[in-house]
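Dear Dr. L.,

I hope this message finds you well. Following up on our conversation about the binding site, I have prepared a predicted three-dimensional model of the protein together with IPE. For your records, I am including the exact sequence and ligand specification that went into the calculation, followed by the structure tokens. Please feel free to forward this to your student if that is useful.
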Amino acid sequence: MRLDTKKLRAYYADAPQDISLDDVDLEAIPSHVSIIMDGNGRWATARGLDRSRGHVAGVDSLREAVTTSVRLGLDVLSVYAFSTENWRRPQREVDLLMHLFATTLVKELPLFHQENVRLRFLGDIDVLPERTRTVFQRGLDETADHTGMTFALAVNYGARSEIARAARELARSVASGELSVDDVNEDALSARLYTAGLPDPDLLIRTSGEMRLSNYLLWQLAYTEFYVTPVLWPDFSRWDFLRAVASYQGRSRRFGGVMSS
Ligand code: IPE
Ligand code: IPE
Ligand code: MG
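The resulting structure of the complex is given below.
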């Protein structure tokens, strides 16, 4: 995506001491960054607040992450917002999250218009509460023509169920004679994942220090660089984003080969 350097410099104008735009190579910004937004509950608990307050605060971080991604010229930002396992949480917390997804999306639609951001969802959103589903569909419809960054929100997403679903679809196509068994390959499976058509993430960020994937993008992360930060999601800022990108740029991605000198 094209980078508006002037806008980007203004966005990062007041640099803290330890990181600045000069620490990253603007020619080598990752195309797809994915984030496991974790630590909302701990952020709230540490302040003696209800966990829900952490989720509300997390929305501000997400808005900033979207803007940062646009300013940095990413092609895709994807974020893990609700896993297939998160239904195990207390009903009150689940209800709050579903409500928050709906209200936030309505509130942020002008930002998506202004920044030409196209929305898409990863996960089975058909089973979400009706209002959330309706708002999500509205978001999809209203941003379908946008040609800028893709923002992919993973809601009711689980990687194992995603892969099983893709396998089921392949089996169905083979059974109906549409597809031959020999055509069941990596591309055919990728094309049936929720991420069909998107490049694999170059960089995965997980906040709050947890060193696990929690059933996120198991297929797509095969060669992704990981960056885990102890920063809790509600505290994650544009500067933390920059730190992650700088760390990513310091890696040598070999994809199984050897370094070219
Ligand atoms: C991430 O924060 C948000 C969601 C999973 C929806 P958590 O709610 O998992 O926060 P912690 O991990 O309990 O601190
Ligand atoms: C992963 O976080 C899911 C999201 C961020 C939406 P969790 O907090 O649910 O993951 P675990 O339970 O610590 O593995
Ligand atoms: Mg968590």
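In brief: Residues 37-42, 82, 86, 97, 208, 233 surround IPE (ligand 1) (CB under 6 Å).

With kind regards,
A. P.
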